[in-house]
Amino acid sequence: MRDSGESEAIEAIYRETRFRMERPWPPWPQAFAIISAYATSGEVWPEERNQAQDAGLERCLRERGLEPHRITGYSPRTGHAEPGWGAALPLEAARQIGRDFHQHAIYYVDAQDELWIVECETGRPSVAIGQFAPRCDPGGA
Question: Nearest to residue 84, comparing CAs of 44, 28, 47, 34?
Fold first, then answer.
């Protein structure tokens, strides 16, 4: 389990994230998760592993009968970008998938367009960080 300082540092990274969609997604589902399968914060994986995990996550979502939508989160400060998938999932199912794909946290967008940081492993409460739509920038992923 992470200490509070490490959790706060991770949360700061998640708070600054902006998003790009590969293609328009009108209308967005009423509520949805954004999950990445790439190396989690603080870890470095070979690109082949990142791509294999990403393909596995897409397959997992499709096997649940979902239509995943490519959403890339990126840091406007560093330029680091990480592809993920948007999918209309209940929160607890999304959290479990995040755990299955070794993620510290996922994002969740609720019916009021509120963006939440949802830790996958800890019992910490989810953290609301503002509206999702204003964090979306034009351009492909």
Answer: 34
Tens digits of per-residue pLDDT, 61-88?
999 999 999 999 998 888 888 999 999 9
Query: Is 11 part of any domain?
Result: yes
The radius of gyration of the chain's CA atoms, rounded to the nearest angstrom, is 14
pLDDT digits (tens, 9 = 90+) for 38-66: 987 667 888 899 999 999 999 999 999 99
User: How many CA atoms lie within 13 Å of 34's alpha carbon, on the beta-carbon side?
Assistant: 26
Closest CA to 89 of 112, 122, 66: 66
Averaged pLDDT, 83-98: 96
Question: Quick check: is 133 in a domain?
Answer: yes
Residues near 126 by Cβ (< 8 Å), separated by ≥ 6? 108, 116, 117, 118, 119
Asked whether residue 121 is domain-assigned, the answer is: yes
Q: Three-state DSSP class for 61? A: helix
Residue ranges making up the domain that contains 130 = 4-17+29-137
